[in-house]
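Incident review: delayed structure delivery

Summary: a single-chain prediction request sat in the queue longer than the usual turnaround. Root cause was a stuck worker, restarted by the on-call engineer. No data loss occurred. The affected request and its eventual output are reproduced below so the record is complete for anyone auditing the incident later.

Affected input:
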Amino acid sequence: MHKPRTLIIVAMLLLVIISGGSPGQGQARLQEEGHFIRLKAAVFNPLSAQVLDSIPQHLTIEQYAPGQQGYFLVQFQGPIELAWKDQLVALGVELLHYVPDFAFKVRMTPEQAAQVQQLPNVVWTGIFHPAYKLAPSLQDATTQIYRVYVERGASAQQVETDIVGAGIAVLQRDGNMLMAVADAGQLDFIARILDVAWIENFMINETHNDYGAGVIIGADTVNANGYDGSSQIAAVADTGLGDGTKSGAHWDIPAGRIEGIYSWTMADIANCANVIPDGAQDVDSGHGTHVAGSVLSDGETGGEGQGAAPAARLVFQAVEDYVDFYGLCADSDGYSYRLIGLPDDLGDLFQQAYDAGVRIHANSWGSSVAGEYTTDSANSDAFIWNNADMLITFSAGNEGVDQNRDGIVDDDSIGSPATAKNVLTVGASENDRDGNYQCDTGLSYTNCAAFGGQNAIMTYGGGWPSNFPVNPLFSDPAAGNAEQMAAFSSRGPTDDERIKPDVVAPGTYILSAYSDMYQRGYDGSRNPQNNAWQSDGWGYPLNQYYKYMGGTSMSNPIAAGGAIVVRDFYYKAHSHNASAALVKATLINSAVDMLDENNDGADDNDYPIPNSSEGWGRIDLMAATDDGQEWIDNTGGLTTGGSSSSTYTVSNSGSPFKATLVWSDYPASTSAAKTLVNDLDLIVTAPDGTIYRGNVFSGGWSQTGGSADRTNNVENVYVQSAEAGIWKVEVRGDNVPEGPQPFAVVVDRNNAGTIHFSAASYNVGEQEPTATITVVRSDGNNGAVGVTCATTGGGTATAGSDYTAISTSITFADGDASSKTCSVPINNDGASEGGETINLILSNPTGGASLGDPQQTTLTIVDDEDPGTLQFSAASYNVGEQEPTATITVVRSDGNNGAVGVTCATTGGGTATAGSDYTAISTSITFADGDSSPKVCSVLIVNDGSPEIDETIRLELSNPTGGAVLGTLMQATVTIRGDIYRVFLPLAVR
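Output delivered after worker restart:
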C-alpha cells in the first residue's frame, strides 16, 4: 500500500500566482465552479477560495523573475480543441504534458503567462510547484536511491551539476534520467531545482515467477485451424534463453524460427554495483526459456510444453546478469542474478524488437508499486502510441495477499509497467491438467517416486502461509479449477481506478521448456558463478526438457501467444495487419467471465466482470478467431467533438450483443492523478432507442443510464439479451487534447451464421455409390440452426436412373461450426453417357442463420470411360519477388478419354495482396482428347520495391468439364520469397 508524504494530498486548493503577491493570490477568470486539477500530489479546484498551506510552503514558488522561463499549469474551460492549443503555441508557449482536467503543464515566462490568461478559452493559469514533482509513494524515511527525471528540452547535465553541487551523490545519468542517493531533506532540494520534472523510487524489476494453453484457452483447436502464428514474429525480454545461442535454445524452439538473440547489460556503477555479464544464457531460474516456450514452443510429440503460437518466430532479449550491489546500493542479497539489463527508457528495448519485425512483445517482469503509474508505464504507453501496430504484454505481478485476514485477496497490487494504459495486462488463473502433473521418478534427490510419479499440488497457505493465513484461501489447492483465480495474482484497480488486469490466463503448474544449463540430476556440475543448480520450478521436472512453473510470469506468455494467434488470424483470414488496439479489443471481447474469481471455492460468479481480479475475463482463442466478430481498425482517429458510427443487424432476439472499444492512448504525465489523456466514449443504441454507455455494468452485463467513463481506454457494452433489429455502435471524441486518436471496435452480435456449400461444383465417378457434398457454417455459430439440402432437377442426369433425388435436413448445434455432408445416391446404369450433371440447392434456413454463397452447386457424374483426373502437380510452389511470373503446373492422370477442361484461379486468403503483390487470375485450362501433357497456369508477380517477408498466394482448381474429376491436389499455395535483409546494429553496453 502507498505511504503518502505528509500534507501532500489536498482536496481543495487556491490558485497559485503567476507573478507578484504571496501564496493565496492569483489571477483567474472567476466563475461559480471550475474543473479540478488532478495531480498525484494535489487535487484541487483552482477557482476555489482556499489557500496554499495545504501543501508544504517550502515546496512552493512565489513567483518567477521577469523574463525567466518557468513551469506553469494552464487550464481551459472544457474539452480541448486544437485551435486553443495553437493559440498558446503562437504566443511562444511550449506545451509539455496534459494534466486532467483540461489542462497542460507548459514552459513559459511570466509575461507570456499574463497573455495566456487573457485568452478567451483559458480559465486559469498557475505555477507548477516543486511539491507536485514528488511521487506520493516515495520512501523518504531514510537515505534511498531515487530516479530523478529532467523535463523534456532541459539540460540533464546542468541538473546533475546542481545536484552534485549540493553534496548529493549521483550514481548515473542516462538521457533525461539521473539515479541519486538522497535523504528526505535532500529530496526537497532536488524538487526545487527548476528543470526537475519528477522524482520516484528506484526499484529493480523482478520476474513474476502446453496443457493450460492448449485446453483451457483453446489454442490447440485454433492451431489446428491454421492460426499458429506462422506469419508473426514475437519478442520475449527475460532472463536468458537456453545456452544463449540459436542452436542451444531448446529443442522445441528450433534455430530456424529464431530471428535473433540479444544480450542487454549495464556498466558498473561506482560505489554501487559490479556487473558480471554472462551473455544470453539462462542459468539461474530458467525463467526466460520457460516463458519463451509458453509463447511459441512447438512442443513434444504428445503435446507436452507446446506454446500457444507454435509456429511463430522469435526475437529474444536477455536482460539478466550477475550483480553485486555494494556501498550506497548494498542490500541483503549481495551477489545475485538481477534484470539489470532493462534500460531506463523501455522504448529502447521495444524499438530493437520492432525494427526486427516484432509486433507482439511479451514481458513477464515488473516492479511492485501497488497500482502506481510510473515512468516505465508512461514509456511503455509512449512506445505503443508511436508504434500503433505493436502490442506489448505485461504480467500483472504476484503481489496478491490477504493482509486483512478476511479470506479474500486484497485489491490494489498491480505492478509496473503493467499499470500502463495501452499494454495488455495479464493476471493468472488456475491451471487444470486433469491430474497430469507427472515428474521424473529417476531423480534420486526427489520424492517423485514415492508419490507415484506425480507432483504433490500445494495449497496457497502451504506455499505462502503469511500471505494466505485463513480459509478458504489457506487450504485451497493452487491448481485443479480452471474457473478459479490464482490467489497470488496481483489485483487491480490502478491508483486512478482503471480496470486492471485486462484479462487472465492459466498461471499455475504450467509445463514448459527447461533450460539445459546446470540441471540438478541431469548435469554433472553446478553453476560456477554461484555454486547453485538451476531452479527446478514448481515441484519436480517432467524430464530434462520440461518443468513446471507458476506465477503471472507464466500466464503472460500464454496470453502473449494468444495475441500472436489473433494477429495471425487477422493476417491470414483478412489480409490485415492488426493494430495493438484491435488485438487487445478482440481478446477482451471474446474473454470468458470466470466463475470463482474470489477464490471462495464455489463456482458461483460472486463478482461478475469487470472486476479487480480477472478484469474482463479469461482469454478464449476459439471465440477470438471464429470469425463471428465484426471489427473496425480506425487509423484516421477522432478529435474533440468528432464521432464515428456503424450499424449491425441482429436476426433473432435473445442472444448477447457485445461491443468493445479500445484505443492506444497518449502517454500520461507521471505527475497526473488521472492517466487518461484522450477520452473517447462508446455509445450503443438498441433498435427500440435504448442507449447503453461504455462500462456501465451490473451483474456482468450492461445497464441503461449511468455516466460516460472518464477513466479507462477500454470500454465495453455487453447486452445480455439483444432484441432483433438494427443496433448502432457509435464512438465519440469527448476530450482529445493530443489527437487525433485512432481506435478499434470489435462487435460480436452472436450471429447464428451463414450456411453454404463448400464449392460451386463437385464430381463423383459413376461407379461410386454415393456423392458427398459438403455444407459449411461460417461467420458465426450462435444457437442451433438448420437448412434443407435438395436436388432440384434441371441437370443433364435423370433422377431415378442416374441418381436418387433427395431433400435432406442438415442441422448444426449451438456453437458447432464443423462441416456437414449432404449425400446423393448414384446409380450406375452401365451405359456410356459422358459426364452428366445434377443441380442441388440449399433452402429454408432456421435458427436465424442465413444462406451464403454458393447456395447452389452442380454435381457432375463422371462416366467410367476414364476422361481423367485433373490436379496441380504439387501442393506448393515458390517464386522470387523479382521474378515476373509464377508458373503452376496442372496435370491430367488416370485417363485421357475425350476433351476436358478446368478453371485455375487465385482465391485470396493468402498473405499476399492482389493488385500490389500479384495479379489475380481466373484461367481456363484445356486438354484435348488423348492429351495428357502438363499445362501451365501463370500468375503475374508485382515487385513493389519494398522489403517484405515471405508472402503467399492461394490457388484452386474448379469447374471440371468433359467428365474429368478433380484430384486431391485441387488447391495449391505459391510463396513469394521476400527480399528483406535485416541489419542489427551492435548493442551499446549500458
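Verification: Residues 552-574 form the longest helix (23 residues).
Action items: add queue-age alerting; document worker restart procedure.
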